[in-house]
Amino acid sequence: MRRYFLPALKLTIVLILLTAGLYPLLIAGIGKLTPGKGDGVTVTHHGRVVGYANIGQKFTDEKYFQSRPSAVDYNAGGSGGSNKGPSNPDYLKIVQARIDTFLVHNPGIRKEQIPAELVTASGSGLDPDLSPAGALVQVPRIARLRGIPEEKVQQLVQDHVKGPLLGMFGPSKVNVLQLNIALDNIK
Questions:
Q1: Are residues 29 and 100 in the same domain?
Q2: Backbone angles phi and psi of 103, in degrees to 5
Q3: How far is it, in rounded angstroms, from Cα 6 to Cα 84?
């Protein structure tokens, strides 16, 4: 028994040191080399931190671009989706309520023009980005409420579109927080 026990104990100790000690230190060290030094990338506006670049936020004022809905009310402490399927009656009521609310706040937009991302929550509930279509459909409302020409707001959206990673991985996207900050900077 000793013949098997000591090598197993040594192997266990070595693996504990590797997986519970060295590996976390290695990952933390790599994190310190990234933007934000492993603590997330904060976004500042007028010298004040207003959010994180990779965590969605709720914008309730109509003069701002609205984010994708969140099943966890943008609580970064516990991300998650609704876990309700597309045929669930409760889920369908929630989506219909979001559609109705969007149409009330965006007159002139038809139901079929609303991108699905504006009425369905993301899997994490913390998605900070919209597709360009999700931002552009909101342009008429924002231009009207702010008294800015639509073309200027459309150009602002286009200026904030980030293409796919390395030109081929993922969709084009617009960070809503950064877009809203730029919107506030328009004179």
A1: no
A2: -65, -35
A3: 51
